[in-house]
Amino acid sequence: MLTIDQLVEEFDFKVLAGQAGLGRLVTDFSLKRPSAELVGYLTYLPPQRIQVYGRTELGLLQQLADEIRYDNLSKVMVPEVPCIIVTRGLPIPPEFIQLAEERSIPLLLTQRSTTQLYYLLIHFLANRLAPSTLIHGVLVDVYGMGVLITGDSGIGKSETALELIRSGHLLVADDAVEVHRVDEENLRGRAPQTIRHLLEVRGLGILDVTQLFGAGAVREEQELHLLVKLEEWEEGKYYDRLGLDSPQTSTILGISVPIVTIPVRPGRHLASIIEVAVMQHRLRSAKL
Question: Which CATH class is domain 132-287?
């Protein structure tokens, strides 16, 4: 859940009017720059989106006669709009302030350019509003691909991640991984703030990876490309030995992710096996 006052704090917006609406919820990570709507074409106006006004939009409004400007703007600044953001610190037409106060729509001002704000705000909203789930496992960046290592407690997930970090790969999250669905095809994972950059290894305790290996040994978040499930070796159980079986998948938040099951037994170097699994996955993906 995200409210406008949280957005104001995150981006240091200046509140010019509509303070009564700062508790409104943001439900859509898309933004709207009204253009045709300002001259009366309202067919495709999504009222639940944050509206952003820069030089182009304000310039278009200034070309309208006073009575037409207010009437058109009143049809665009409908009460359902979460907030209005004006960029570049541009002068605010009085109609904005009047309508914002009447309809309790927070009117916000930023010194950022419209392009910069769009990039930062969409990225922030996509992460905060995306469907998410918490998965027990370890997320590492191996050769630039996000690998989520799962398995029963004590199977060796963190120890395997430690070996991967020592080989030059990057830690994203240990123990608890926040996985977010950012669009129809992609998932991204990160660590909860309280355990970011930390790795728990039995016998050694909780390790700060940045202190041991440097800031370059971690990533804040990473797209999820491959699941690796570690499980105890079972005598007599079938395991693919020839690589002829069809690739398996697992579904997270409605998205299918390739999964590789690796049986664990003494003498197996799991970090090296995972490195090869990533290379094999990359090769298969390139052939599709």
Answer: alpha beta
